[in-house]
Specification:
Largest sheet: 7 strands, mixed
Structural class: alpha/beta
Order of helices and strands: EHEHEHHEHEHEHHEHEHEHHEEHEE
Radius of gyration: 22 Å
Number of strands: 13
CATH architecture of the largest domain: 3-Layer(aba) Sandwich
Shape: elongated
Number of helices: 13
Helix content: 25-40%
């Protein structure tokens, strides 16, 4: 092929493991004699459009740098929420991207992101193919939501699941301190897919009775039934603990907590959620009248690197390096994925599929993994989740605080 330089970018919501995937891409590129320059685009595809490109070799000097990058949360290259339009609607944007790639002599482009990011990878791959440019485009998954189809799970999900399960265990201990009957409602991220909320049930897998109720967006939510569920649990437990997804919906499809939400939307038209915990807290206070509080785990679900899953971090590095191998082998327009070989012992393989199978698609928790009443999960969830949260990572500390990797963000001239 012609150009041999690499460009890598990150997009969408941050995760604890996305920098580990970036470290894997960089590692794979550094180890290849066929790759020359390694560039990073700051803030995703927007960085390409606005000339915000850095030389990654300025910052990565050793294996220690790669290791530190792999355990640094959030997105070291920054992110964006930008939907690439269809070519026929705005060909000028594609020409701008193509010109940047040509000036930098990019032969390989790796885009690390979620559903909408895979749409960008798909559109660019088609554009380069139709215009006869030998530029290989590979989409690499990330999302704490675990909602990308085809792949067994997504990098970043294991770390979030481990944090949520651990936080839930600690909340359970706290709830048992007093003799006063109480209800504690824990709100967890998840618009349409309840994988993260399912992870909140993991304490049950190790013998805890709590959380007593678990509500996922895959099952219709009814406020009156919720109150009956709480009352039933109160007859058995002094302290009732509830895990609920921010995206639970009424039977008519509207969000259960719409009156507590802003109604604003992001660049992709997705409503900003949160508020279901406070909504249910108010409901319990008014209708049941016991001590009640709500807890929103919020962004810690995606940046709690202090309790990262080693399995997740290791797999994230692995899939990033495998993406480089796939591109070097001639693949393009592909999506990197995990295929689970076995649960016990846990084993996965890294494979590829067409990125078109993933773009704008969504994977939800199977209905058979939710109980008949729609207020908890089944044991199959634990079999699936437990391998993903195993192991702990060594986090470098300075004066008792974690050390994070930062790129030299001097822009390259071209």
């Amino acid at each position: 092929m012609g150009f041999q330089n690499v460009l890598v970018a990150q997009s969408g919501g941050p995760t604890t493991a996305i920098n580990a995937t970036l470290a894997g891409v960089i590692k794979g590129a550094l180890e290849s004699e066929r790759i020359e320059q390694i560039y990073g685009s700051l803030n995703g595809i927007e960085g390409v459009l606005h000339g915000r490109i850095i030389d990654i070799r300025r910052s990565i000097k050793s294996q220690a740098d790669l290791k530190l990058l792999s355990v640094t949360p959030a997105m070291a290259l920054g992110s964006c929420r930008f939907r690439l339009p269809k070519y026929e609607n705005d060909p000028a944007i594609y020409k701008t991207i193509g010109d940047v790639f040509e000036k930098l002599q990019i032969g390989y482009f790796f885009y690390i992101g979620g559903n909408d990011s895979m749409d960008t990878a798909h559109k660019l791959s088609d554009y380069f193919a139709q215009t006869g440019r030998d530029i290989r485009v590979i989409g690499i998954p990330k999302t704490i939501d675990n909602d990308l189809p085809v792949t067994d799970h997504t990098p970043g999900f294991g770390c979030a699941a481990k944090y949520i399960a651990t936080a839930m265990s600690e909340i359970i201990r706290d709830c048992e301190v007093y003799l006063v009957p109480s209800v504690t409602i824990v709100e967890i991220m998840g618009r349409n897919a309840g994988w993260l909320t399912a992870a909140a049930a993991l304490p049950n897998a190790v013998g805890e009775s709590a959380p007593h109720l678990v509500y996922l967006p895959e099952a219709p939510f009814d406020a009156e039934q919720f109150l009956e569920d709480v009352k039933e649990q109160q007859r058995k437990h002094k302290c009732v603990v509830v895990a609920v997804s921010e995206g639970v919906k009424n039977p008519d499809g509207t969000y259960a907590a719409e009156t507590f939400q802003s109604g604003k939307v992001d660049a992709f038209g997705h409503k900003y959620l949160s508020g279901v915990g406070k909504y249910l807290e108010t409901l319990v206070a008014e209708k049941i009248g016991c001590k009640v509080r709500s807890i929103e785990l919020n962004v810690l679900q995606r940046c709690a690197a202090h309790i990262a899953s080693k399995t997740d971090i290791d797999e994230s590095v692995r899939i990033g390096a495998a993406a480089v191998d796939a591109a070097l082998a001639g693949e393009t327009g592909k999506f990197m994925m995990f295929r689970r070989v076995s649960d016990n012992p846990y084993a996965i393989k890294v494979e590829t599929c067409e990125v078109a199978l993933v773009a704008n698609q969504e994977k939800v928790v199977p209905k058979e993994w939710i109980n008949e009443r729609g207020n908890h999960v089944t044991r199959e969830v634990f079999t699936y989740l437990m391998p993903l949260i195993q192991g702990t990572c060594e986090i470098p500390l300075k004066d008792g605080l974690p050390v994070h990797f930062l790129f030299d963000k001097t822009l390259v001239a071209y």
